[in-house]
Design a protein that fits this description.
The complex is a heterodimer of chains A (178) and B (242). By secondary structure, chain A is an alpha/beta fold. Chain A has a single domain, classed as Rossmann fold, CATH 3.40.50.700. In chain A, the strands form 2 sheets. Chain A has a 5-stranded parallel beta sheet, with helices on both faces. In chain A, strands 4-6 form a two-stranded antiparallel sheet. The longest helix of chain A is centred in the middle third of the chain and has 13 residues. Chain A is globular. Chain A starts with a strand and ends in a 15-residue tail after the last helix. In chain A, 39% of the residues are buried. The model of chain A has no long low-confidence stretch (mean pLDDT 95). Chain B has 2 domains: 73 residues, Roll (Ubiquitin-like (UB roll)); 134 residues, Alpha-Beta Plaits (2-Layer Sandwich), CATH 3.30.70.20. Chain B contains 6 helices and 10 strands, in the order ββαβββααββαββαβα. In chain B, the strands form 3 sheets. Chain B has a 5-stranded mixed beta sheet with strand order 2-1-5-3-4, with helices on both faces. A 3-stranded antiparallel beta sheet of chain B has the order 6-7-10. The longest helix of chain B is centred in the middle third of the chain and has 17 residues. Chain B is globular. The model of chain B has no long low-confidence stretch (mean pLDDT 96). Classes of the chains: A alpha/beta (178), B alpha+beta (242). Chains A and B meet through helix 4 of A and helix 3 of B.
């Protein structure tokens, strides 16, 4: 049986969802035999294989121009897109800046009052979007894994169901935010 | 089929049909009460045992012969046919809950009520996978002028339980609703800071009945705020207020 191609993406989130994925512990050994891990913060591969992947897990909200662009590439290159965790599903903590003008925000964090040189980062870092969005406001999402972070068991349940060619059935506590 | 004139039914009772089952309920019961008495659970949010019904959240929507009605305020009637689990009402309830999430800033992960929140539980109950309407992300204030309590408007669902418990049980009438529509906000006295609201007795019942992390005790960290809304029904019974 050909291995399932998996990618993971890290947008505006704390990496806790990726940590939770690694928390699958010994189940990872079983998974390793059945999946091929492509571009991911875990492999440091930056882009999708030409032929795309079967599943992409997306952690984090969409908060800057590069992430928005990459989100559309995720959709184009993945058969199934999974919003992994509350930031991707709801905007969560990164979304708390919404409503504050980005120039005021950047000035407050990097301006003279806070840093020694007061240099506002630009050019080498992507510009912030005026509004942070949950992933599904940018692209079509096939499955939502709730939680901050989603429990490892929930991520495992979803991935194992997909490997069996089934739609994961998420009910009750599986859907708990936070 | 229930005709309302079944054998053995007293003048103080009625028979109606809920989800295809003939059920008995006392005269004057609402659809919600009739369902509950017969073990049929309908999700609710603004409803709280012991308080008057407000009918404002629309989470308890059911179908009566194709008409969608809020179960908490619609009186049950003999022979009435009620459906509580159709795809249509399930979808409507889910949308209502999504609108509640989109309208304010409900960030469960950093909320004092995480894990003890009626809105959070409701989202699971109605199987909300994502919020399909655009989030509003309003900039809203927090009033921490009261020495022991605070209200964070970001987490308020405008259920009005605070208003009702304050008026009906405490008799203080401190809480009210200011403005209208999307600008509506819970206020104390004539929209003064809570700490300056002279009518507030500091009893804390509003804290206990608030379904989310909007009205809370000060000094709680994330997930630490546990409440006891059941206290109201107990007080109402003991004080003979029902």
């Amino acid at each position: 049986m050909p291995k399932v191609k998996l990618a993971t993406v890290w947008f505006s989130g704390c990496s806790g969802c990726h940590m939770s994925l690694l928390d699958l512990d010994e189940a990872l050994v079983d998974l390793a035999g059945r999946i091929e891990l492509w571009n991911s913060p875990l492999t440091d591969l930056k882009d999708f294989p030409e032929a795309g992947v079967d599943v992409t897990l997306v952690e984090g909200a969409v908060a800057n121009e590069q992430q928005r662009e990459h989100a559309h590439r995720v959709r184009e290159k993945s058969r199934i897109v999974i919003a992994l965790g509350d930031c991707a599903v709801t905007g969560n903590v990164p979304g708390m800046r919404n409503g504050i003008p980005t120039d005021r925000l950047v000035e407050r964090l990097y301006g003279k009052a806070r840093t020694s040189n007061g240099a506002i980062p630009c050019g080498e870092v992507p510009a912030l979007l005026a509004r942070v969005s949950p992933l599904h406001e940018e692209i079509r999402v096939d499955l939502y894994l709730h939680g901050c972070p989603p429990p490892a068991a929930l991520i495992g349940k979803a991935i194992l169901a997909l490997l069996e060619g089934l739609s994961p059935v998420l009910v009750g506590q599986d859907l708990k935010f936070g | 089929m229930a005709t309302g004139e079944e054998e053995g039914v007293t003048v103080n009772e009625m028979v109606l049909r809920i989800d295809g089952r003939d059920v008995r309920a006392p005269a004057g019961a609402t659809i919600l009460e009739a369902a509950k008495l017969n073990g049929i659970l309908i999700p609710t949010l603004c409803h709280l045992d012991g308080l008057c019904e407000a009918g404002v959240c629309r989470v308890c929507l059911v179908e009566v012969k194709g008409e969608v009605v809020p179960a908490c305020v619609r009186p049950a009637a003999a022979g009435m046919e009620v459906e509580t689990k159709t795809e249509r009402v399930k979808e409507l309830r889910r949308t209502v809950v999504e609108l509640l999430f989109a309208e304010r800033n409900h960030i469960c992960a950093v909320c004092v009520s995480n894990g003890h929140c009626e809105l959070q539980d409701l989202a699971n109950e109605v199987e909300m996978h994502s919020v399909r309407v655009p989030y509003v992300y309003p900039r809203l204030p927090l009033d921490a002028t009261h020495p022991r309590f605070l209200i964070d408007h970001n987490r308020c669902v405008l259920c009005g339980r605070c208003v009702r418990v304050c008026a009906e049980v405490e008799g203080a009438h401190t809480w009210g609703t200011g403005e209208r529509g999307v600008r509506a906000r819970m206020i104390t006295d004539l929209a003064v800071d809570w700490g300056k609201a002279e009518s507030c007795t500091g009893c804390g019942k509003c804290v206990q009945v608030c379904p989310t992390g909007a009205i809370v005790l000060k000094g709680k960290a994330a997930a630490e705020m546990e409440k006891d809304p059941g206290l109201v029904a107990e007080l109402v019974e003991r004080r003979g207020l029902a």
